[in-house]
Amino acid sequence: MSSVIPPVAAISLLYTALIFAIALYAHHRKETGRSIISNPIVYSLSLGVYCTSWTFFGSIGRAATTGIDFLLIYLGPSLMAFSWLFLLRRIVRISKEHNITSIADFLSQRYGKSPWLGALVTLIAFLGIMPYIALQLKAVSTSFYMLTGAHTTAISFSKLGSDATIPITLLLALVLALFSIIFGARRLVSSERHEGLIAAIAFESLIKLLALLTVGIFVTYGLFDGFIDIFERFKAIDPERFTRLFTFNTATNDPNYTSTFTLLCLSMGAIMLLPRQFHVMVIENSDERHIATAMWLFPAYLFLINLFVMPIAIGGILVTGSSSNADYFVLLLPQMTGQRTIALIAFLGGLSAAAGMVMVESIAISTMLLNHIFMPVIIRITPREWFPLLLINLKRFGIILVVLLGYVYYEIIGDSYTLVNMGLISFSAAAQFMPAMLGGLYWKRGNKAGAISATLLGFLIWLYTLLLPSFIKSGWIPETLLTQGPFDIAFLKPTELFGLTGLDLWSHSLFWSMLFNISSYIICSILIPQNDQERDQVHKFIGVFDREEAQRRTERKRLSKPVTTDQFVTLLSKFIGEAEARRALDLYASSTDISRDGTVSEFDLPNLKRFTEKTLAGSVGGAAARAIVNNFLSDIGSSMEPVYDIFSSVRTNLDQNKESLYVRLKASEIINRTLDLQVIMDDLLTLLVKEFKLDTALIFVKNNEQGYSTRSVQSADLPAKRTAQWHAEHIPYLNVVYHEQEAYFINDIRLEQASLTLDKSVTEGFISCAHIPIYREGEPVIAVLSLFSKSIAGLFTREFIELLTSLAGQLAQAITIVQEVEEKQQERLQKEIAILQAARITRDMEIAQQIQKSFLPDSAPEIAGVDIAGRCISAAHVGGDYFDFFLRSDQTVDIVIADVSGHSVGAALIMSEVRTLLRAESNSSYSPHVILQNLNIQLFDDLSRTELFITMFYAKYNSETGILSYSNAGHNHPVLLRTSPNASQELDAEGLILGVIKQVPFEEGTVELVSGDVLFFYTDGLTEASNSSGEMFGTEGLYNHLNAVAHLPTNEIIDSFYARIHAFTGSQILQDDISLVVVKIL
Amino acid sequence: MKRLRVQILRRLQLRESWIIFFILGVILMTFPFLNIFNKPVLLFGVPLLFLYLTTGWIVSIIVIYFFVIASHYESKQNDEKSEP
Predict the structure, then answer these.
(1) Binary contact (A310, B50; C-beta < 8 A)
(2) Residue A450 C-alpha, separation from nearest chain B C-alpha, in angstroms
(3) From CA A595, how far away is CA A565, in angstroms rounded?
(4) B55 to chain A: nearest residue by CA?
(5) ipTM of this complex
(6) In A, which residues are within 8 Å of B42 by CB distance?
(7) Which domains are delineated in chain A?
(8) Mind listing the pLDDT tens digit for each residue in A222-261?
(9) Cα–chain-centroid distance for residue A1072?
(10) What is the domain range of residue B55?
């Protein structure tokens, strides 16, 4: 019979070659850009990797022994498909965004990129999948023996001259591992989807479906007469078995359907959480839209592949008469009936099922091993040139390890478990990820501690209640542990833990593991706070559908030192090889405006860093990639600050935000650089536009009730003047901002349309905008800062607005300072002008004084026998005092002394007028009273208009006759001092002050002067001069002094009077004008 | 705005119905319903439970199929609406 081996092996090889051809073709199509696997049907078929030897062989065995409950393993996934639209789509979206490589990577990234969680999940997957791989090996090798009828389980190489033998199963394991390596580990970029692998898997899914359908149809319609015939015959022949197989509870004597529910739950979890399912569903998904089709196509596939399971099982029982070896009915039935071709097809179907599963599973797990177990160790070593080689070989090693471990388990467990029971152990292991997965997707508080403790506890219980008993049953571990419990503690019996009996193996394990798993997840998540990084990740995972746009803008980081792209190429080369690194960087450079050899600008760098991390994450996993890039950057002296982002930062401590600190710093530099407000505003807006990738920034100042004018406009692209056409529709917002003193922002203008039309803004392409008041605390708004973005909806987060508000505050401060400086300058200028004016006035006054002084007589007229002197000293620069002499003839002189009220220029002008008039009068021979009368009439209008008055004493002296005739218009009475005692008198005559009434008669008095008489004319400034104690000089002082100095010449008399007044007042400055005229008869 | 809300609501309703059908499916797979069909009898020559499970399965596949078609149609409509 062993001669059958070569043809079977040959067909297997041919089949393998076909698979390779398909994989190569798919790869080639992908290279040329016409992917065949980017197709919903291929995607759905690739999900069919769920159906393994378990389905192909095991289901039939299960159906023939315990009955219809085999279906639950497929009903669960079908039900789960209902949830894919939101559950799977979310997972796929997140995974694509973060370049996630496996389920371990997914969970690790969700929980703060925790390397421990990643390692734990990897370990569980690695150990948990062991029975599943063993199942495949067992199924395929057994089917091989059956088909070939080989009695040995090993191939002898004695012909080659040695006695070495190698077990067929081991050989099979190695071949499958080789397949996996060829398909999944030729190159190291695992984030790149394995097109060839998926094409092969999809093809194999098709083969196993067709194979099973072929066998099914053959059995149902070839051996029997259709479904009904099989069922009816079976019921008739073996009603007891019929009852057992076609109802649920008879097998386990379980009235509550617990085991039904357990199987349902396990399979629902498995479809999402088994590493290979996660791999084909999430990692290899090329288009989110394929999920929709897979939602019905995959259940339909499951339905079809299971349609003939029951008939085959029943047919097998009917044909063979028993259910022993039922696992292989699919092969036995054609073989027993001599249909070798169908048997071969069945064998190929089984091989397909097993090979597909082993390949995907081992690749998925080896990726996890590499990224989460090997990598954390390797990244501690400095990158070397042989790193790419090491990494790829580690991955290959991982694949072999996974397959070999499955083989070892198969060797240990052997035939003690049916295929399905072996598979269920793996399902239970995968189920341990469920709480962390679902919690991670929908519960924000779910944290690292919770996830790790939950997964670990669940895993330990699984280990104890399922894996351990499987070893016990195989006799590898003494059975006493199972029957009596460890150390004879019955309480801890692995299958009756804590005394829980009456449940089947799976329900028992699921109950305890889930109890501990879920409760520790919840308790730890509630009790232990999340750290910053975890929060950051939570935000990215849970908010994934909310922030599609904003996501791309996150993680803007600032570097202290410029870095070149070449340095990144060097870094990447160490892990993925130089060609690959160049290719990746070129791709990146082409999508941005970075030139590949140039230095990277500060704000492109975070993107580049992100890209590098993503690329590396593809081969080494997220956590490791991050560590590598950070290490690298700190090595080249350009340490990157911890991850934070300015726009959607989940960190509440804004102070730590380096980005905003940078902008603040720049802003204050701008503000302090100049006092030119326009320059400050322009520069500040340019800064904002550039740093935050805004499109337009404006500063509005309110003109009046309605209008606003732009003080500064900065735009990323469109010409600034165009802005005038659309920003008018934002005026209502500006009003609100002015009034409320609070920032107003619209994160999506298109949604804002209802409350206010912003059509023009929408037409311009603006998506979001913000208006920030520029004001100082407690003061009215000075202006409004308006920012517009065309690309980012949701740009204006609370943190961003806070930053902008604070910048606006800085600007307000600057404006206030500039205004204060301007005000001070203005004030100084005004003062200068005032001083200048005062100086001019002073000068004018001095000139006026000069003129006025020139009006007064320089010297007294000389008349024989008379000594005359007169002098005026003004208090102000110009005064109203006036005295004059008019020489009429050789003997006659007119003496006039007057005082215009006030000391203004007006008074001086009136004085000059008086002088003019008097000069004109002086040529006439009128007597004093007529002169005063005329003068009064002439001056009246001017005086009454200017509200000035004049007191005047007019005297006419004839030296021949010695007669002094005089008239007085309200002036101080001149003093006539005579040598004879008591003869002194004051000269007085009736008369009103000039300018009061137009027609006024003036009395004229006469007196004869004799030798020795001293006539003293004065103005009131003399008698009214007061000292510091308020005493006035008075007429008494006048008399006293005059008596004392009367013997002196007139000039000296005047000198002495001024000296006396200065002495009396104690000051050199006169309080009032003082004019003195002294006439001494010689 | 109003139109958008209607669309979102419709979407939510759709999403809710996915969940409702999911839960309904789980309920159909639990004790009370299973107990009704868990009898060793033939109906139209097919075991009752087997018939129940396969028929339910087919129905659920058809239901998902129509939902997917509907959601395709709806998203297409949304695209058309949002384009101009």
Answers:
(1) yes
(2) 27
(3) 8
(4) A303
(5) 0.81
(6) 231-232, 235
(7) 2-367+397-418 (1.20.1730.10), 547-651 (no CATH), 655-823 (3.30.450.40), 857-1081 (3.60.40.10)
(8) 888 888 888 888 888 888 888 877 877 544 455 557 778 8
(9) 78
(10) 30-74
